Amino acid sequence: MIDTGIEDQNSIRFTSVEALIPGIRTQGLRLERPGLYIGTSIYPKDTRDTPRSQAQHVLEKLTSKKVNSESQLAELTGYLKGRTVVDIGAGKTTNGYQIASMCGATGYVAVEAHHFSELRNVLGKVRQANSGKMPVCVVGEDMRDFAKRVPDNSVAIFVFNIDAHILHKMPMMDIEKFSQNISRMLAPGSAYIGSSTSMPAPGLREVDRYDPPYDPAHYIIRTRS
């Protein structure tokens, strides 16, 4: 369990995963050091330039003055407000955290095996007036294993950037089991928000799609059927 208080009252408050997802199975879960995982990082090792992730494009769109940005933010808030968000493949930036925070989520669980340490460090440096209101937990476990732990009907979900970097490395049987767990753990009234994906979503229906797939700021919203 990680339960790290940070003295600065304006910094993010890290807490335990049990506090954010009551009823989660934690036996064998290692938060402090990632175990075995699948896929590749979106961040190349041979450059200091950090590529812009899909979540970053979406965040920039939601905070811009473009047409429909306010209505899209309002729609996402309707699905996320008062929920714990599980961000699958969160990367090593605060983009997912910021989207969840601005939409009124009450907890943020970042599942990130490749960049566990970097993500904890960058989140720990965030300073903003309302940051202490939404506690955070970073999990270094493989997303397939973590999804098995989450109780039914319990969370909202972010899934960005996993098609090109993770799913293509997974056996189809694993993809099907993972997608079943994603559908199972999605809370009624909340949503799966992420990239247009080839991953099946049993029991979920697409309710909105913003921008064409070739637009880096595109995303889809899926809810329970």
| The CATH superfamily title | Vaccinia Virus protein VP39
State the CATH class.
Alpha Beta
Question: Which structural class fits the helix and strand makeup?
Answer: alpha/beta
Q: What's the pLDDT, averaged over the residues?
A: 82
SSE string: HHHEHEHEHEHEEE
| CATH overall fold name | Rossmann fold
Radius of gyration computed on alpha carbons: 16 Å
Largest sheet: 7 strands, mixed
Number of helices: 7
Query: Which strand order do you get reading across the main beta sheet?
Result: 3-2-1-4-5-7-6
What distance separates the N and C termini?
Answer: 35 Å
Count of all domains: 1
Q: Which CATH architecture would you pick?
A: 3-Layer(aba) Sandwich
- Please give the share of residues in helix: 25-40%
What is the global morphology?
globular
Question: Can you put this structure into words, describing what you see?
Answer:
The chain has 225 residues and is an alpha/beta fold. The chain has one domain: Rossmann fold, CATH 3.40.50. 28% of the residues lie in helices and 15% in strands. The protein contains seven helices and seven strands. Strands 3-2-1-4-5-7-6 form a seven-stranded mixed beta sheet, with helices on both faces. Helix 2 packs parallel to helix 4 and helix 6 packs parallel to helix 7. The longest helix is centred in the last third of the chain and has 14 residues. The protein starts with 16 loop residues before the first helix and ends with a strand.
